[in-house]
Design brief:
Three copies of one chain form a homotrimer.
Chain A (H helix, E strand, L loop, with lengths): L6 H8 L3 E3 L8 E2 L9 E4 L16 E5 L11 E5 L2 H16 L6 E2 L4 E2 L4 E2 L4 E2 L4 E2 L4 E2 L4 E2 L4 E2 L4 E2 L4 E2 L4 E2 L4 E2 L4 E2 L4 E4 L4 E4 L2 E4 L5 E4 L4 E2 L4 E3 L5 E4 L4 E2 L4 E2 L4 E2 L4 E2 L4 E2 L4 E2 L4 E2 L4 E2 L4 E2 L4 E2 L4 E2 L8 E3 L4 E2 H12 L1 H13 L3
Chain lengths: 343, 343, 343
């Protein structure tokens, strides 16, 4: 962060009710109570860390109104209703400073087809390529080196970061955020085995990304064989995730990093998949299904399932079996002893 | 898809032998029998879905000659020799509309070295970088923002999608397709541990991609330490796959998404690896070896092996053990009961 | 490789003490003793392959001084102190030829903000984007189509390959190498669940990459929620690796391909993680912890731990249990037999 705020500026930002102490420092970073050093802002977000406040070297501390204690030398205590909310305000301010909204318009280095319809309030950054028939809605931002293929549609308030590819015919609804390097609409992986060779099955469907979806860096969402691959409203996808063709992901799901979803599978709303989990093809994960990191799910699940392991089984059973597996050497010994026992 | 075909156009495309019914709709999408709505084309590709035809809301249906039934109002039935083949023809036509072949030539925004030899029928799209000594063959297409490093060679009829990197000295043979974001020829991962530090072992080999290979979005194929990393003719690789240095992949293999192959390993022809499978280094997978998703293969395999699990073992054994593992809590109880039994 | 060296040039490069035989070939590639063909250089790097020398078809062979044998027709034997060191010299020469250092300066097609400070000896290649407030140090090289966001800092002698993204505020220290497609500083994956929706937690920290780090193709290192995600000096990261927000990686670690590290986890120095391993969040892996490929580590480890499996357990125990698991069918039978035994 390239920011510098005085304690008074922080106090104003968070609406501090009371301020104690003084410091010559300006705030340039945020850190936890124990990690903070001079020039850092810290906060007491959870009562269980209360004992760490007195020892914190932060220059400014956000504390709840009921906190009792004195500042160290060269330290300011700011008392607020809710330190976590106060911190969020500071973060939002810093976020604005870090990522100022660029002015509307098309950068002269961008290559934009004459038939593309780009809203006057949208921004097409340097070295983007926008092909024929594309539409880009109000306030949307293509940061730099973004490719948008023929007839793709981008709604309002989207933010597409550098190096993303949105292939022909695919769509982002509104307020979608793509982190750098995301690929929307690569061909689905479909072949037919004919006379010793894999013949490609044309992949002519599209990808539809609904409102308020965010997708992490270098993740890939494949176009459908036909019809649509869908990522539902409000779903959040982490980095390096693979979503295969014709997958339909419901609303408000969470897919952690390196998850893979095989073709034609459906995730109902509120599914949560831990990092590196894998889901087989042509199945349905019921609403609210939750799976631990590295789970391997090959069959459909009931709503509310909580799974772990590979193959994934109910979470508590998996945890129990994991413990028993470590006792296998002992079990083999016990069985051998029984076999040797005189009858 | 931004297409619109009249039923008569569809009938002509597929060579329909008979047409029954009428519709005012134009066809804008393709869907399965049950998912189809007005404006969709659907088809009976498999006799087991025959009962779904009568209820389908598709505006046009491709049906086998022996199908008996009447169209719904505002619906056209087209009778053809083979509905799947007919559908493939429609898809191929749509694919042409979706991805029209751009005109030959070099886009003015591309940065192309004077010594690059680019065939007159090739297309170098906007914002590509082509370095010294590169050759690009007849009909090949670099779509946009593609990087081709010094002395790399691209054969005939290749299609390299936006954001791909083909590093110095690497080669694509003919009709190779790279989906967006593929990296061919990053350095192999090789270090020597010297006095507490990892010293880089120069990676001066190349990558050779043979005819008719396709590689999925954001996959990475590393250059060899020396000599060549090879992806054999007709092999298809899905998204986010890692192929390490000096790996040699045979002909007509299938590597599903997120597979990783460690260095110096050989895959003989027709190997198939399920999603997220991992293969150790310096081993050989025999011809036609097949492994399930998430399999972890650490040792060489015989031709025709069928493996699953981690560590991978023969498929049927793994399936059986997976079932027995879930009965471990019971087994522990049974052994405890035996131990308590009076003798 | 597009190189061609005469045997005399190779002899000079490696400081050969003695040369026997002649060949009309020029050296165009390097290969192992058994794989080498005419035009190849090979070497005896390990005494155990001594018997392979006589049968090697290499045109030039690097051999230790004490090797006794005659060249084949059209073959040159070069005797050197240490054939591995000699080979490394040839490789280094080839590396220079393969990747010539481009001239300092900013390519006219790059889009560079007026406020960016780029050292006179640095190179900003074609179609790069460098935003406001960026600093780039002496001798650093942005190869092509690299994005460097506001206020990011790049030290001396770095090499950033095509298509990399270094987002706002992040830093590379000195001699850092990023392979193509690396994303430094995508947002961390943090949401709060509020009234049925996932609300984004602003990610306003940065990423700090220390000296001599190398990161593989398409890997992603997320920015911190606040403060810094750190990759320590001399650490080497392979392709398609995910490092989440607020992770702190120590010095001289090795992360093989497709590893994933969850948020706020610390790796102390000299940690080594095999391919596709996963590490949970908010834990610490002690100095020198080593884990096998595909290990799943959910809890903190002691320094010097050696783990395998998922969930990861001590390596030798895991190997033993893996064997016993394959004997589970037998164990179930044995227990059934005991249960049936007359008492």
């Amino acid at each position: 962060m390239q920011v510098a705020y005085t304690p008074a500026e922080i106090a104003a930002m968070v609406g501090a009710q009371r301020s104690v102490g003084t410091t010559a420092q300006t705030i340039r970073d945020i850190a936890s109570l124990t990690a903070a050093r001079a020039g850092d802002l810290s906060f007491l977000g959870n009562a269980k860390y209360r004992s760490q406040v007195a020892g914190s070297a932060a220059s400014v501390l956000l504390l709840p109104l009921d906190y009792v204690g004195e500042p160290r030398p060269d330290q300011v205590l700011l008392f607020v209703e809710n330190p976590s909310v106060a911190l969020a305000r500071v973060c939002a301010r810093i976020a604005q400073a870090l990522w100022p909204k660029p002015a509307p318009g098309i950068h002269p280095s961008a290559v934009v087809a004459a038939t593309a319809r780009i809203h006057a309030t949208a921004h097409v950054g340097p070295l983007c390529v926008v092909e024929d028939g594309v539409t880009i809605g109000p306030g949307s931002l293509l940061q730099a080196s973004v490719f948008v293929g023929r007839d793709a549609r981008i709604g309002e308030g989207c933010w597409v970061m550098p190096g993303c590819v949105i292939a022909a015919g695919c769509s982002l609804a509104n307020r979608v955020q793509l982190q750098p390097g995301v690929v929307i609409g690569a061909d689905g992986f479909g072949y037919e085995f004919v006379k010793g060779r894999h013949e490609k099955i044309p992949q002519i469907g599209v990808v539809a990304i609904e409102d308020d979806v965010e997708i992490g860096a270098n993740s890939t969402i494949d176009r459908a064989r036909f019809s649509r691959t869908v990522v539902g409203e409000g779903t959040k996808i982490d980095n390096l995730v693979q979503v295969a063709h014709n997958v339909v992901i419901g609303k408000h799901c969470i897919l952690c990093s390196q998850v893979g979803i095989s073709g034609s599978t459906t995730l109902e709303d509120y599914v949560i998949l831990g990092g590196q989990a894998g889901v087989g093809g042509h199945i349905t994960l019921g609403k609210g299904t939750k799976a631990g990191g590295r789970a391997g799910i090959a069959t459909s699940t009931e709503p509310g399932s909580y799974l772990n392991g590979n193959p994934a089984i109910p979470y508590m059973l998996e945890r129990r079996i994991a413990v028993l597996q470590q006792r296998l050497p002992d079990l083999f010994k016990r069985v051998a002893a029984l076999e040797k026992a005189p009858e």
